[in-house]
Design goal:
By secondary structure, this protein is mainly alpha-helical. The chain is built from five helices and two strands; from the N terminus they run βαβαααα. Helices cover about 50% and strands about 5% of the residues.
């Protein structure tokens, strides 16, 4: 992502995200960051839903993984099996999920 104005990054409140090196890289690449972003942002991060899909697929296909190599192979298979409509639906529901979190002042939502 060389000098791409207009990119905005959503990231949690993990300390590594706020390291000087990370901040310098983002600034150098002209990548904005949504601030502040709560450490626990129930239902607002689309990648959490993708991880859920990958996890379910991996458990269904390989319930007894023996090592990291098998895990990587299983996750790669799950990633390749993702249906674009699933990702599209997840991304398109982000606004509704964020509105639900705002409406509950950060509390529990149906998502």
């Amino acid at each position: 992502m060389q000098n791409n104005p207009g990119y905005i990054l959503q990231q949690g409140d993990t300390p590594a995200y706020h390291a000087r090196e990370t901040q310098a890289y983002l600034a150098g690449q002209q990548i904005g960051v949504i601030q502040p972003w709560p450490a626990v942002s129930s239902g607002t991060n689309p990648i959490d839903y993708v991880w859920d899909i990958l996890g379910l697929h991996t458990q269904e296909m390989n319930p007894k993984l023996q090592n990291n190599v098998q895990l990587i192979q299983s996750l790669t298979s799950a990633w390749n099996a993702l249906i674009q409509d699933q990702i599209f639906n997840i991304v398109n529901s982000t606004r509704r999920r964020c509105q639900a979190v705002i409406a509950t002042s950060g509390g529990h939502t149906l998502y």
